[in-house]
């Protein structure tokens, strides 16, 4: 009874700031998550029957909420979707990997030893023999930090072995912001940088702490079908081989080359580091790749503004998950994605119902459910590159990704530690409901770069990705942290991310009232939030200032 009272008090505080906001129903949230993460939706993989079912369900719910289609224009009318052309890449047949150390050779197993991605370089066959391996530390080129891990080495015909995260991760201090990951620490950056340098391949050494997830996540995310935006020159973004390797296997390779992995990792934390070849150690690979261009879809719904319809407040979240993939120990092949991200979809649908019932706002409110987030933020990247509503007149974006389906917390967070007016407004609204802001608890995990607000943020749009708190009213920080850790280890990007009928969704219901209040304030005002003056995204926003006058 105590917990129920606290939830009601929280909702009452929210309603004081958004008196006209309809209620947010935990039962409806539960039902949406249950449906979207059911086996019938086959893990919501892009370009599958699961996509068709997901898109149809979202359109049906947005329509029932009273919203209008906000997608591609055809004959002067909006559709419910935006076509997103994607390259689709799948390994066909076996992956043959042979590691040679001195005179001894052995076969490596795809998924267990290495997680090799289907090549997105345009190559239909990846086939090389005895390619040399070169350790390039963290693989960073950062002129503004006077940092260069390559020191002029030519990587053509070579496999670059690289560490995950930033040089600061181990020590917590240095030129890369301490524990907080910069974009240089992301695996996407590593792959792109090696491709720019003409490497034959990139092999990232997996370690759980700096990656922020275990090997099962790496295996499941990299050994299935890959997608990318369609590129004119794919080799500039992707080397022929892209892979992850188990830490202990990598360390053994270093030992075979007469090197000490841990000692070299320590050297890589300094700007004086120089690349080191693993002498006597080579890798051979052979695997075929089926490459196609397919069309996926973003779903777009709009509540048109009554006074400033061309000014847009946006909510976003990704509809896709990993689809059907390799079976787990129980033989389950469906990656249902209940928390990630059926919860975000349910949140958007509830918000849409609220806006549909309320009087039309002065500015338009757009709901964007994007595809292929799990493949590298591709749906949001495509939208941000081809916006249906100009980014300069997009007031702000609130992204919802992997929310807690449990009870309410005393706090909330966002991905990363960005400073912007939109966060200030969010903090103020939550504070009025007696909910505190907790800074990103794991800035070293680089979550800021891992969700769909990022393609908007890097183009200047004030954008945040909302996160549920971990200081639970029922159980405190201990219970909240334990739940997060268990989810990351046992369910994240695994078939075990399934709907649980015990979930109450009362925390989401409480938080959605506040997210609604923030969006409604923006939609019924002339406010233009911006980034802080020292933000790396401020200049991009200021460039479009004329569009907001």
From TrEMBL:
Pfam families given in the database record: Peptidase_M28
GO MF entry, a single one: metal ion binding
Listed SUPFAM superfamilies: PA domain, Zn-dependent exopeptidases
CDD domains: PA_M28_1_2
InterPro entries in alphabetical order: M28_fam, PA_dom_sf, Peptidase_M28
Ranges of residues in domain Peptidase M28: 298-502
GO BP annotations listed: proteolysis
Signal peptide: 1-18
Keywords: Aminopeptidase, Carboxypeptidase, Hydrolase, Metal-binding, Protease, Signal, Zinc
Keyword Hydrolase: yes
Protein name: Zn-dependent amino-or carboxypeptidase, M28 family
Species: Massilia yuzhufengensis
